[in-house]
Each structure stands twice: as C-alpha cells, then as structure tokens.
Design goal:
The structure is a homotrimer. The longest helix of chain A has 16 residues. By secondary structure, the first copy, chain A, is α/β, with parallel strands linked by helices. In chain A, strand 5, helix 2 and strand 6 form a beta-alpha-beta unit. Chain A has four helices and 40 strands. Chains in contact: A-B, A-C, B-C. Chains A and C meet through strand 22, strand 23, strand 40 and helix 4 of A and helix 3 and helix 4 of C.
C-alpha cells in the first residue's frame, strides 16, 4: 500500500513470523503460513494485508474489514469478521509498530559527503555518516558515526552530535551537545540565545546566555520546534523525550526522561519537568515551575503553579482535572441557561 | 505607492478599464478617462490613486479620503467625499484584489538553474522552471513546468510538484505529492514522520509512518507551517485550501476543499475537515474528529467533539457559538461581581 | 563555568572593576581586589565566581550559596551568607547582565565571504561583514557594515539590512528594510505575502500584498518567528522590540517601540501596539485593534477589543486583569463545588 516512490517493502512474511517477532498469539484456526505482504488501514486492507484495532472508534470498521489479518486486544477478538486471522495482544499499537517496522525497515545510512557541503577543516565527522547537499558544519564540531545530516542543515561551531543521530533538512543547531540515536526533524532551531534581558525604563539590556542545550539519547524533536540555550545552567532534554512540531522550550528548562510534548505546546524558562510528563497540544507552562513525574497537562491548559507527581490538570489557569471537568460542566449549564433567568441572579 | 525595490507597477490605467475588468459600476459623474496609477490606503491615497472600503471601521477615513477613486459597496456610496470617483460593487475587497493584481502583476517565472543548486541526475524538472541558489532536489523527484523553487529549498527523493507551483526559501518537502499552482511559503516543512509511537511502561516504540502528504491544486501554505505525512493513509490538503503561518497539521488529517486555517492553529491526527471549514487563529482540534462542511471554529477554541456542518463553535472546550457567547456574558458578570457578594453564594 | 567550546572568557576581573562598570555598591568588608573569574548560578558558584539574586524563589539558594560574590538588591543584602561579597544595586538582573557581558564579550565579526555563498552582482555588501556558507543574497539587496549573515540564510532581492545586524542560519528575508544592530535568529521568515484574500462562494482571490516589513533599529526576533509583509501599508516593528520564538505577526501590524512579544503569541492583521506593550506567551490579539502604550496582555489571553494605555488584561476573551482574577476565583469555587449541590442551582 505504501507508495514505492518513498517506501521499500521487505515483505511478504508469514503470519507465523509476525507472531514470533511480536510475541502476539495467533488466533485459533488462522493459517500460520499465510503470507502478509503489507500493512493497511482497516477499511482498505485486503486479504494479503494486516491491520490493527487500537481505538474503539474504529470497531465498526474492524467488523467490516477485509483484512487478511489484524492485531487486536483479547477482549475485542470475538468481534472479528469471519476468516480474519488475528494476532492477539494486550498492546495492539505497539505490536503493529513492530510489524510495520519489519515490513518497512529504515533506509540504511551510507557514508557520503556531498560536494556542495561546507565542512570546516577543524570539524570531525565519524565513519558511515552521510552529509547532504549544502550542509554547513562549523569549526570544532564533532559528528558521530552513522549519522545522517539532511540537506542545508547548519551545524554550528563546537556542536557535538552522537552516533546514529539524524538531522533534518534546514535544521539549525548551535551551542548544543546532542546524544546518540536522536531524530531532529526539518527546520528545528536549537541553541539560540534565550529570551533573557533586563527590562527597565532605560530600555532592555541583553543578558549573555552562557549555557548550552543538552539533548540526551533517543530524543525526537519535531519540525520547526525551537529550543533555546541556557542562560548559565544548561537547557536539558532528557533521554527518550518525544517533542512534536512547533514546540517552544525556553532557556534553562529541564525535561526529565521520556517526556512527551505535543504540537504547539511551550515551556517557559527555568521550568523543570520530571520524568514521563505529558504536555498535550497547545498547552503552556509558565517559568520557574516543577512539574512532577508522570503529570499530565491537558491540551490548551495554562499551567501557572507546580504540579505534583502523577496529577492531571486542565484549564487555563490549570486546576486538577476533576475540578476542571466539574467547572466545564458548570460552563455548559451557564451556556445553555435561558436569558430570562438573568434577573434572578 | 508600492516600493519600486520590490514591486513593478504596470499602470496607469483609465477608470473605464478598471470598471471593465472588475465588473464594478462607475459612479455617475466620474470621468471614465481619469488615470489611476496606483492603489493606496484611504488615509494616504491621492487623486491618482484608488482605494477601497470593506470594513465599517474605516468609514471615517473614507469620508475624509483624498483618493481619486474608491471601490465601495452600494449602501456606502453616498458617504463618499465630493469629487471621489466610485467603483460600486457588492464585493469591494474582491474587486480591489483584481485591480491591484492588474496594476502589479506577478513577476513572470523564467527558466533558470543556479549553479549552486544540487539537482539529482535522476530528478525531472519541467520547462520554464526556476531553481534558486542552494536548492537541493533529490532522486526521482519530479518538478513540473513553470515552477519557482526558492533559494535553499530542499525537495526530497521522489517528491512530485505540479506545474506553476512556487516553493519558498528554506522550505523542506519530503514524502509528498503537490498539485499545480500552489504556493508553499518560506520555511514550511512537509512530510516529516507523524508523531506516532506506542507508549507503555517499557518506553516508546516508533510506528513507521508509511503514508504521504497529498497537497491538491491551488493550495497556499504559510511560512514555517508543518504538515506531517500519514501513518498509512495519506495526509490530504484539499484543493484551494488557505493555510496561514505556523499552523500544525498532524498525520492522517484530511482537509476538504477551500478550508481556511488561520495562523498558529493546529489539527491533531486523523481528524477530517469537510469542505470550506474555517479554523481561526490559535484554535486547536483534537484527533479523530469530523468537522462538518462550512463549520467555523473561533479563535483559540479547543474542539474536542465532532462539529456538525455549518455550525460555529467557540471556547475551550468548544461549544455552539451562541452558548459560548452566553457563557462569556456570564463570565463578565462574574468578573465584575463585588467581593462582598461572596458570603451569599 | 561556560563551556569553552562555545564561549571565551575575558576574565578574571577584580570586584572593584565590576563595581565600577555597573555602578553597584560593594558591600562593607568585601575585598575590592578579590578576583572573579566567572559567573555561575547560586547553587553551583564557588568563591571565584559571581552570581545574582533577582527572584525571591531563589532566596534559600542565596543563603546557602558558596559564591564569592553576588549581585543583590539592598533589602536582601542582610540575608547573605558569611564571607560573600555583595554588589548592591536596585537592579540586580541588569547589573548582572553587564558583568556577564564584560566577562563574555560577543565574538567580533570579521569580514569574510564563504566561497559557497551566492551574492548577486548587483547586491551591495558593506565592509567588515561576514557572509556564511550557502548564503543567498539577491539582486539589489544592500547589506550594511559589520553584519553577520548566518549559514544558508536567504536575503531576497532589494532587501536592506543596516549596520551591525546579525541574521541567523536558515532565516529567510524578503520585502523588508531592516535597521541597524538587530538580531534576527535562525529560521525566521520575514516578508511573506500576508494572509490576504477575498472569500466568497466563487472561491478565493488573492489580494496582492504590496507593502513591506520595516524592522527598526535594535530589534530582536526569535527563532522560527514569522512576520508577513503589509498589504499596502507596511508592517512595522518598532525600535527595540523584543520578539521571542514562534511568534506570528500579521500583515499591516504596527508595533511601537520596545514592545515585548513572548513565545508563540500572535498579532492579527492591521492591529497596532503602541510603545512598550507586553504580550505574554501564547496570547493572541485579533485584527484591527489598538493596544495602548504599556498595556500588558497575560499569557494565553485572547484580546478581542482595544486595550487602553497601561491596562493589564487576561482571559479569553480578555478582560481587565482584576476582573479576570475575580472570575478565576469564581471558577475555582465552581471546580470545587460538590456534585450534590447541583440540584440546588
């Protein structure tokens, strides 16, 4: 199904093999030697393709699907249409991810340096790294092994990039130390001076921003997101963080491990997120706060105070999610209240 | 009035000609042979220039304007100052657009390929296309005829671009099929992998994103906006959509024809907008929803549920606009309520 | 403390000298000949380093700090630990900024033009300007003296840039006149056509955008921000404005002097901000408004009406901040109200 202009399929594979690599259980009656050549959505898959069901919104599509096989959780297995083989697992999306990666492995990176790239003589580039057209790599920069540096990306003086990290087209990195196996997407800007200045009636005085951005291993940063360098302490993006597109991270921010920041969210300066915090889309966190481990900040929430570990908050200004839900119920009643009630207020 | 550094004026033209090309009616007493050499705002226009009135906020400026001519709707024609020629039409802004385009036609694109551009030998480039400095065009990419590819833009392997489409400076396109006569502005990122991963206590597993971005004809995409490729199905931007700056479109999103997405709005994954939906600035739509034809989402609204065709919604979480307006009235009362009322609650 | 990969320290300096350049008062008993070699945060500074205290959140860190010296306001001086020298001033952050700039002066710009840059023969470039790899400078552009143009930046035809201005990597400038001593960060897009089109049932008609962007002197524009050119009048960014990352400025917007726009905020078309307006993060201002001198718009606020000079507003839609605070108190009560109260409403 995937467009061969862009994706090369390594399949087909037998169902038996897909069950093995994922640890899912093959449903009774399914033919373990049936061949699966591709992945496809429930509504378009044919009998040579495998799909998955992870969201009950798509239950009807599942029951009508022509897919030859489907990854599904045990409690929905009995809703499958006749003749569909099932890979049964408590984590269908994760299991589907492994199958799709098996069918469509990532392109290997091969060592190359485009003639139009400008690599400073004092920069180091590891073996097996691919440097695209128009790339600029500054003095004393250190690029690891097996990296892919996309066309027209700019790697500033002294920047360090770990092994296996991929940098997207037109990304701009400066004043940063990036770990291994990261994926920095197109247009990302890392290391610009933070928004630090003294304000008073005489005008603004820029405060030198003398920190760096530390991006730990296995981090993903989405297109056109911006991460400012620290003012003195560093800005730190913890290992395994997933940052979506158009996200703003201010100076001195510290993200723990495995935080998820969805598109267009923003974290103001000097705020610290402990491990595994989730910041939903368009949410904002003001500066100098601590957001506890595993906290969840709802979409468009505006967080003005510390959030304890594990707490979910919503609203602007944000409050505990149960209170916010009650407030929203109250808003709905107010929105529906007849105007004639006004005099009684 | 326009700065000749940047814009070349094709005028002057006689009022008669401007009436003809727009279909507007020339006011009684106006001299059809009067020459108009330029467009200008109401407050600065002189008697050789034409202006327009489309917003009643500017009615006072209209009554005081020295403009030689003005495009105006019939019901405001009698407010014109003495001596001003009028082009009367029910659609003044549209009419003004045609006049301004007549005075300032777009620069023609002339075939060229800058010596610093890197065009893969296996890429195809149509006749009459201009390729700027530092452009990178990947293997098997296909660029149509009469396109303009701005400096340092990056067109990835296999990307297809239709005739007459213009790509801005530093834009990054990958995994996409773009129609004809589109305008993709500077810094836009199209085709990055969607924010798709399985989350569980063991960590994140990336889900291969095997779809594309399909941009249909006559689409405009504003500076630094980001559009992720589909996870399996494609992300689709319908014909004639107008997308402003810094807008985020998640994977698998489908926009119908003629949708308008204003700056800093965002659409989460797998949501579908039917034709002619308007999403105002900084609004957000959560994933897996359907927004009906012609629906209007107010600025900063947060849409968490399907919206029926034609409905206007506002607020976060969003509700029908009439309810939202009533809620806002209630908020205003609460904001003005004296503190001494508190004990009575 | 600053990483020598990225920053070169000009110190050490004696306390006496730091007091002189800042005008701060050295505390009684402090040794004016003590040498300070670096700046550092309160919690990590040692006795050869200077820190500052500007926010009472860090008062405890101050009382425990090992810093050799600290910049502090008079009223907190008596909280200093024994043996810490103090530079006492009513403006500690400003004073610290001067000290840090003295220790870490900006790299001087030296005249250079990378061989991979494409400079149109009809462009003018002033003396002492540095042009990085892959830069594209268009016909009739004029770059001043002592500028730094970052790698892969694109300067369009006719663009004017004043002396001492720095342009970041991958920035895209067109249709603009930029003043002196500005700092335009990486990925910024200036001068794209505004979001101007006539909408009606027959479709959209683009309205030619015939204005420019005027960026006055000493302006800072953060990474990946976007500023559209005017439709006829110019878009104007007043002298000394500070614009953070991912900010959107629509066509015809006029910012007065010294406005501050924090990350992810947006100003819609034709709105005017008078001098010294502060727009906090993720706030939005709708079009055609006037925001009075010194007004303050809270984070995530949605401003739909003119704001008088000096007024602070909050909320969406925005209201005077005192009313908004009262409303927020009311929301908190509603959020905490027990469900059993519902029947009594």
């Amino acid at each position: 199904m995937a467009d061969s202009r862009f994706f090369a399929c390594a399949g087909p594979f037998r169902l038996r093999e897909l069950a093995e690599i994922t640890g899912a259980e093959l449903s009774a009656g399914a033919d373990p030697d049936a061949e699966i050549g591709d992945v496809a959505p429930l509504d378009t898959a044919d009998r040579h393709q495998i799909s998955f069901l992870d969201n009950r919104r798509y239950l009807e599509a599942f029951t009508k699907s022509q897919a030859g096989a489907c990854v599904v959780m045990p409690e929905l297995a009995d809703r499958a249409p006749d003749g569909m083989a099932l890979l049964i697992t408590s984590k269908p999306y994760r299991c589907y991810a492994r199958i799709a990666s098996h069918l469509y492995p990532e392109d290997p990176v091969t060592q190359s340096r485009h003639t139009s790239a400008s690599v400073d003589p004092a920069a180091k580039v590891g073996p097996g790294t691919s440097i695209g057209p128009g790339v600029s790599i500054g003095a004393a920069a250190e690029i690891g092994a097996g990296c892919r540096i996309g066309a027209n990306a700019v790697i500033g003086d002294g920047v360090v990039i770990g092994d296996g990290t991929r940098i997207g087209a037109n990304a701009s990195l400066s004043y940063c130390i990036v770990g291994h196996d990261c994926e920095i997407h197109a247009g990302v800007c890392i290391g610009n001076r933070g928004f630090g200045f003294a304000m008073d009636p005489e005008g603004f005085v820029d405060v030198p921003q003398l920190g760096r951005v530390i991006v730990e291993d296995n981090v993903e940063i989405g297109a056109n997101s911006t991460i400012d360098r620290g003012a003195g302490p560093d800005t730190v993006i913890g290992a395994g963080c997933k940052i979506d597109n158009l996200v703003q991270i201010g100076h001195n921010v510290q993200l723990g491990r495995g935080c998820v920041l969805v598109a267009q969210s923003g974290i103001a300066g000097s705020t610290r997120l402990e491990d595994f915090v989730v910041v939903a889309a368009q949410a904002g966190v003001t500066g100098h706060l601590t957001i506890g481990r595993g906290a969840q900040l709802a979409a468009q929430s505006g967080v003005m105070r510390d959030v304890p570990p594990g707490q979910s908050v919503g609203g602007s200004p944000a409050m505990p999610i149960r209170e916010y839900m009650r407030l929203v119920s109250s808003w709905k009643r107010q929105g529906k209240a007849k105007v004639k009630d006004k005099p009684n207020e």
